[in-house]
Amino acid sequence: MRLRLLLILPALLLLTNTQAAATEQEDDFILYRGERCVLETHWLFPAPFQAYFADGKHGKYPLEMTSTANYRGHVATYEIADGRLYLAKFQPSHMSDLLEQEKSQPKGAEAVVKKKQARLDEVLRQVFPGRAAADGRIFADWYTGQLRIFCTLKKKKYQHPDEKTPREEVRPTEVALLKIKEGAVVKETRFPIAEYWAKFEIMKRRREIPAEEAAAITDHLDFLDSYSRDWGKIPGVDDARGPLRTEADFSVFLTRQVDARVRIPLTKFVLVKDTALAPDDRGWTLDSNLRIKSGAHLLMLEMGATNVPSGPWSPYAGGAVQVLVQVGALKTGRITFTKADREKVRMINNYDHHDDSLQKLEGDLQMDVSADGKVLLTGTIRLTSKEPTTYQEIALDKNEVPAMTLKDYLKKQEINGSLFNEKAEQVYQEVLEKSKAVPQEQAPEKAEK
Question: Would the CA dihedral through 107, 111, 113, 114 be positive or negative?
Answer without folding.
Answer: positive
